[in-house]
Structures are given as structure tokens and as C-alpha cells.
Write a structure and sequence with these properties.
By secondary structure, the chain is α+β, with helices and mostly antiparallel strands. Helix content is 59%, strand content 20%.
Length: 80
């Protein structure tokens, strides 16, 4: 797995830095693209509902949840 990459974004009018592994940045780009939005908008969306969880962890969990849903849908459509 690659090292973490830090990116700076504006969220709710303030700048913040987020450190994630390259694989998670790529996953977030893919997810945002399928939703027709930029990664920054996806980050804002996740930030708005993360509660007490730190933002990097919330983004990792969002990506994991997204791909788990896809896997479950794929298994359901595979049939017997």
C-alpha cells in the first residue's frame, strides 16, 4: 500500500488538510465521478454527517461502505 498523500480543501469556508493513501483518493475520485460531482463536494457531504469521527477516517469508511454496497449488489445479481 502506498504512503499517505495530503491534500488541502475548503470545507464550510475554511481550509483543511486531509491525509489519505493514494488508493483512497482514487476510490473517492471514482465514487464522486459516479455521482456526477467533484471530490471536494463528496468530501463536504461526508464531513456534514461524520459526527465525532475524524474526517480522514470518515472518508475511508465512506469508500469502504460504497464498495461493500457494490459487492453486495453484484452478488445479488449473480444469481445461483
Amino acid at each position: 500500500m502506498s504512503s499517505e498523500r495530503k491534500r488541502s480543501l475548503s470545507i464550510a469556508g475554511h481550509r483543511t488538510s486531509i491525509s489519505l493513501e493514494d488508493e483512497f483518493w482514487e476510490a473517492l475520485k471514482e465514487i464522486a465521478a459516479t455521482e456526477g460531482q467533484p471530490v471536494s463536494a463528496l468530501v463536504v457531504e461526508v464531513d456534514s454527517r461524520r459526527g465525532e469521527l475524524n474526517l480522514s477516517s470518515a472518508l475511508r469508511l465512506h469508500a469502504l461502505s460504497h464498495y461493500r454496497r457494490l459487492a453486495a449488489e453484484h452478488q445479488g445479481s449473480a444469481g445461483p
